[in-house]
Write a structure and sequence with these properties.
By secondary structure, this protein is an all-alpha fold. It has a domain at 1-128: Alpha Horseshoe (Serine Threonine Protein Phosphatase 5, Tetratricopeptide repeat). It contains 14 helices and no strands. The protein has helices spanning 2-22, 27-41, 45-58, 62-74, 78-91, 96-108, 112-125, 129-152, 156-169, 173-186, 189-201, 209-221, 225-235, 242-252. Helix 1 (2-22) packs antiparallel against helix 6, helix 5 (78-91) packs antiparallel against helix 6 and helix 13 (225-235) runs antiparallel to helix 14.
Length: 253
Amino acid sequence: MRRSFIAYCLLLILSALSYSFAQEMSSEAARLYNEGNKLAKAGEYTNAIVKYDSALNIEKDFRIYYQKGAAYRKAGNLDSAKTAIEESIKLKPDFEGSYNALGSVYFSMKNYQEAAVNFEKVLQMSTDTTLKSSIKENLAVAYTMLGNEAINNKNNTKAVEHLQKAVENKNYDKAYLLLAKVYSELGDFDKTLAASDSALKFKSTISEGGPYYYMGLAYKGKADLKKAKEMFNKAKGDAAYKKAAEYELSILK
């Protein structure tokens, strides 16, 4: 998911480039800007940034700051990327690509709350259905990460809130699996079963062991020991859940 997440952001870099043909830029600034773009495309990010800075000395243009931010991000300098993209937003606050890029930077910084805030802005601003679909995927991942953080902080109520937002944006298997975990801990076994079912239905990044394991816990909680054993036996075929499932089976004997 992380790789595809980054890919969506790269698509927006191409959309930003299209502005260079849609709006006027002074000829010398445009020349330096386009040279920077060629260098960035070739992976020469440091040299690209030099070109962008030279262009900015001539003209403060949101596109130049945007591409400079993208180059910094590619070079792994997230703080400088954030600063450049924020300058792009100051100059053109209605350009949705900058908010997506900023969300991507925050995600890389592991600041998932700010990532979600910026992705939500793109969703509100954009009329492009393809872009909105991609942003919903980004939001699903960001809210899932927030849900996981809440679980680690033992705040299950907040975890459910974040994970529900995740699956509202996309039927994301990891979010459903975490919901199954949280609901099982809260003792809401019907919701545990529903979330586990959805995790299996939309499975693309997880193995089957997790959903079956939480189904086993749910059936155990509902005193349906036959179904619980059935689910734990399925779960133990997954190396990640084998030990936990076998332990539960030993208790049910």
